[in-house]
Design goal:
There is one protein chain. The protein is mostly helical. It has helices at about 20-35, 40-45, 55-60, 65-75, 100, 105-130, and strands at about 50, 80-85, 90-95. It has a three-stranded antiparallel β-sheet with strand order 1-3-2. It starts with 20 loop residues before the first helix and ends with a helix.
């Protein structure tokens, strides 16, 4: 697939978004790194600041201890989060976003805004359909 360089016109507006092979690969790489049943949820929870394991587990109903541990390890390996162990008795461990994941904050904000707009649009479409039925 070739990136098309077309002058912006109404007629060719859709062609401007034609991704290159490299861009497609970049998106695949980013999404595959973030995909995991709970990874997005964990990252979103950590946007508010450091959290302990128990806090994350309580905030994510349905996640098992094993799955949370596995997802945290994976996010740590990918350098999205950092794990800090404090020399206390009992030991305290906190997880927080690494700098690479901090840059995802605008993406999360955009996703939330998009989701809210989409939900409103779906509700309006449903109301419109029920009136015509």
């Amino acid at each position: 697939m070739k990136n098309q360089s077309i002058e912006p016109t109404k007629e060719h507006a859709d062609d401007l978004c034609m991704p290159t092979e490299a861009e497609i690969e970049d998106v695949r790489r980013a999404v595959s790194t973030l995909v995991g049943k709970w990874k997005i949820d964990i990252l979103f929870m950590l946007l508010g600041g450091p959290r302990r394991f128990g806090e994350l587990r309580r905030a994510l109903p349905g996640i098992t201890q094993h799955m949370l541990t596995a997802q945290l390890r994976s996010l740590e390996t990918d350098r999205f989060i950092t794990r800090t162990v404090y020399a206390e008795v009992p030991p305290r461990v906190e997880y927080e976003l690494a700098p690479a994941a901090q840059t995802l904050k605008p993406v999360f904000i955009s996703l939330i805004e998009w989701s809210r707009e989409w939900r409103v649009q779906l509700a309006q479409d449903a109301q419109g359909q029920s009136r015509t039925s």
